Amino acid sequence: MPSSYVQKTLAYYAAQDSTPPIDFFSLKYYLSQASLHPLILDPSHQEHPPSVFPSRTKEVRSWEGFEWCTMRRERGERVLKVVAPMGGIIPLRTTRYLAQTPDAQINWNLSTLKLPAPQILNLSTAALKRLHVSSLETFATAFQTSVLCTVEAVLGMFDEGVEVDVPSAVKFEHAELEDEVKGAPWDVYTLVSRSHTDTSQPIKKTHMLLITLPPWSFTTTDFTQFSSFHNFRGDVLNRGSEPIESWTPVLALWALLYDLCLELDCRFFTVTSYDNWVFGNFSESMQTARQSNIHTRHSHTPNITQMFVFWSQISRGLGRWELPKVCTLFPLEGGGWRE
User: Fold this and answer.
1) Domain count, the chain
2) Phi, psi (deg, nearest 5) at residue 298
3) pTM value?
């Protein structure tokens, strides 16, 4: 059912026997206007910084209650060596992709679009209440009922306008992990499709991994470190470094991304705290990864919803994007690169 705001708008223009002054039924226009309403954080997550453990050289921020030993692997098991930033290409490619993508019409009577957009969709009181966040569980609810349900609906509407040989249903699923980590401050989702044919069971394919972390668990500083160049020398991604508490959130997250993308046989990923977003992918061999700059919920032209839709479509193969090649370049102090 459409929101009361949409219902009133439609009723108003129907009574006037006229059409809205904007393209009220254009999916691409809605996407261009959609935004992420600020989360309403519990004061406890605004006032108390995460715990820190002492290291030999500096204080290393950690996660309270997280079992760091579970992140360790046998030497040589994780082969990721180099992570290189891809720069600001995502906004440019998003704009180009959406310009070339045929528009779709929104059926507001059936729509599950939940992100607010000026003059189109306002948040209801119930929707605003779901944005009150005080724990990992309430953060997951806020994210699922705003961002995920909207982007899933957008992907489905774009699919309806494309003729394909084998129809498929695409959705975000909460991943049930075999090896749950005690104290893990994240939720894991997968973008999957199920193709239906007359002669076989539905074929499930995982296109992208999505890691969500509450903003108090993975801060803007963490995102800055995460999105920088990494050269995982030696066996640091498997063994960490001593003491064991020096496994930082950034190192743990790269280890998690590696393990899950390898297990699920997908190469695309997104990491977000709702406020900050990074998009990336692995090489086929998993030895190299590339990741975007940090994009925020305040990003515009394109906005973060458009970029997330673009990256979801790219992960499905609906657009040209080459996986990174194995990188053997390392940064030099003062600039430049060396083999």
Assistant:
1) 1
2) -85, -5
3) 0.87
